[in-house]
Amino acid sequence: QVQLVESGGGLVQSGGSLRLSCEASGRTFSSYGMGWFRQAPGKERELVAVISWSGERLYIGDGMKGRFTISKDNAKNTAFLRMSSLKPEDTAVYYCATMDNHYDPEYWGQGTQVTVSS
What we know:
Number of strands: 11
Helix content: under 10%
Structural class: mainly beta
Radius of gyration: 13 Å
């Protein structure tokens, strides 16, 4: 069992930046990959970024390349999503998740709201 707690969301103006954090507990953090997802109102949840257990960045969603960066600090049991040049269409609830051996989401955090005003 893994517990995930996201933080760092909030209200930001268009063009601004935020760094989301996802602190994990309950299992050896360095043994699994992590993913960030988001869900905007009325839309399906979409994959934002994936990082491997060792810190290799495996995926960044279209439209987010060059603006979003995923990272993880195994010593702090924390994954991060750095977001810059934010746009109103980035407004969503952002979730972190552990990724299993097939890189499917396994355990989820509770989500953190990101709102980008125009």
